[in-house]
Each structure stands twice: as structure tokens, then as C-alpha cells.
User: Which sequence fits this backbone?
DNA sequence: TGCTAATATTTCGACATCGAATAGTTCGTA
DNA sequence: TACGAACTATTCGATGTCGAAATATTAGCA
């Protein structure tokens, strides 16, 4: 190996420095870069953990979207929510239905539409996986006090409140 | 359409509630879920912006990794940094090299290895894109004061400092 | 009613990604 | 030196994803 892979904090510092040098604003880049470093690590862990359940991240995204919605969703809505082309969703749903995790039911009021919902087995898999990932996520935040976690959540939620206004 | 797509804040609230109901801890889920909502939106914007430059997110990841490293990297290192299989990197590099954005040079001290570096054109594209994305990112943080941005960055950096210890 | 535009899902061909296998090189050590 | 284990990049076949086209249905309106 050429050189040991740099640590996450070191990569973060370099990234911020590089973006600032290229014309980015420091207060912005510190936050955005940190969010992305964190997500990247989380994604790696999720992929590994989901492999144990024989699932891809994309399939998991479908399951969580249905769980969060609390009601049936159409393939188009699922494609939107999971950032994927509608045509890709068809195949994903075929696969998930084949495993018995979701089911498709026709919408009687609009016959172009199909409703997708979690089966009992799908729900079981969902809560199993959540309890597993909560362990890792708690570890990630272990160095933050309760007050700090609250403050971190609050600041992020301020940002989120703006999100929809921007891409209009 | 069935029902209007819910707003980002609304989706966030539902997500936290669902995860907590499934056995997750609230202080954890508020933070983790918020980070992921934010990343998802950012990714959508990046994909759109990169499309203008005729690039995919994966190709952009290669360019930024090289820019941040500040020195040539091997295909394996790039695969690690961008969360992709080494075999996929071969094709990506072929494409980027075809466009003149990167170049491969053999390592004379170890003939199994190849060094990849940004060309002048690659650097130009990098700083062009950074200045573009910084605009959107600033918009995202517009509701936060300087002090709040600093605090947000600090808290995230505390989390990042722990990251490497966890997946050991 | 009848016609056009819009919506929703699926099919299709092209391309990106994956894991396994391949080929070549270096390192450790007997 | 000689041999085997470890490493590096690539090729290969299978699968997932994409955008465009096809199919079917609904909505708007003259």
C-alpha cells in the first residue's frame, strides 16, 4: 500500500481546505463537508448490515419509505422518495414482492395506478433492522451530551426547514 | 397524483416518529435522520448541477478525491475513497481519461501500480464546479448565524473524530 | 360526447457496477 | 536464490439503473 489511508478527521480537514482554496466559503464548507463525511461512513455500515439481511441499500430505501409513510404508496412515489427512475422501481418491486416483503394491489378508483404496501414479513424485517442500526448510530453520537445532541438536532432542523424553498 | 408530496420538514418528523416507534432512541434518530434528509437533497442538487458538466456523481467523486489528496492516487485508493469496487474504477478512469480530465502514469518503483492524477483541464473543471455548488450550499445554511454555523460544524466534527474507532 | 393532453406503469436497449477470476509483480523467508 | 503468499489492476459474466418508447387510463374542455 502506498501510504496508510488517512483518518476521517484528517480527510475532513483536507477537504475543507481544498474547497476553501477553490473558492468555497469556510463556514459553509466545514458544515457541508462534515455532513457528507458522516453520511459516507453511515452508508458503509448500512450496506454491510443490510448484506446480512440479503438486501441492497435501494431495497431498504423502499421498505423504510413504506414504513415511514404508514400507508400504501405508488411506484412513482417510491421512485421519487428513493431518488431512482420509475422504470427501475418496477424491477425492485418485483424482487421485493418475490421475497414476500411487499405486495401490489390495484387502485380501484384509478386503474393506471398500483398501490404498494409492506407485508407483515416486511414490517418484521423493518423493525429488526432498525433496532440493529440504532446501536451503531448511538455509538456515533456517544461523545455528545444530551444537551449537545439536542442542539445538533435543532440546528439541522433549522436547515431542513429551508430545503423545499430552495430548489423551486 | 395521489396526494401532494410532503415537505422535507414533514418527512423528517414522520421519519423520526417511525424510527422511535420501531425501537430507536429519539435523540439519536433526530440527528441521524436530519443528516440523511440533508444529504439526500444535496445529492439531488449535485446530480442536476453535474449533468450540466456532463458528469455523473461517481465521476465527480473521483475528481474531488484527487483534488483533496493533492497528490496522485492509485485506482484502489480511489475505489476506497469513493465507495466503489476496484473493478468499477477501471472503467470510470477510462472514461475520465478519454475526456482528458485525468491521466494514468506508471509507478516506476512498483510496476503493479498505476498513479492517477488530475490534468490541468481536470483542475479547471473542479474549481468551476466548486464555485457553483458553494452558491447552493450557502443558500442551505442561510438561516443560520455565523455563531450557529460554527457550533454546528463543531458538533459534527466531534462526531467525526470518533468515526474511525467504531468500525474497527 | 369526442378529442387532446396529461398521468402511471411497464418494457426495452444501452451502460455502470458488482464479485469472481485472471495476469503480472513484489515481499518475506526458507 | 527460489518459492509461495500478498497485492494491484484488469477482464468477464450477471445484475441494476437509466432514459425513451409503448401501453393503458384518466382529466380537461370544446
Assistant:
Amino acid at each position: 500500500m502506498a501510504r496508510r489511508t488517512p483518518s476521517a478527521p484528517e480527510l475532513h480537514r483536507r477537504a475543507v481546505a481544498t474547497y476553501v482554496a477553490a473558492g468555497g466559503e469556510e463556514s459553509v464548507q466545514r458544515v457541508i463537508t462534515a455532513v457528507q463525511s458522516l453520511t459516507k461512513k453511515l452508508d458503509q455500515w448500512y450496506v454491510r448490515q443490510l448484506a446480512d439481511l440479503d438486501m441492497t441499500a435501494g431495497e431498504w430505501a423502499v421498505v423504510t419509505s413504506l414504513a415511514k409513510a404508514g400507508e400504501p404508496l405508488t411506484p412513482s412515489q417510491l421512485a421519487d422518495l428513493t431518488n431512482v427512475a420509475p422504470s427501475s422501481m418496477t424491477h425492485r418491486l418485483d424482487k421485493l414482492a418475490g421475497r414476500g416483503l411487499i405486495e401490489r394491489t390495484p387502485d380501484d378508483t384509478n386503474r393506471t395506478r398500483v398501490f404498494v404496501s409492506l407485508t407483515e414479513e416486511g414490517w418484521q424485517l423493518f423493525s429488526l433492522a432498525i433496532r440493529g442500526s440504532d446501536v451503531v448510530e448511538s455509538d456515533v453520537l456517544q461523545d455528545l451530551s444530551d444537551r449537545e445532541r439536542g442542539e445538533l438536532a435543532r440546528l439541522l432542523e433549522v436547515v431542513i426547514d429551508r430545503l423545499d424553498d430552495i430548489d423551486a
Summary: The longest helix of chain A spans residues 26-52.
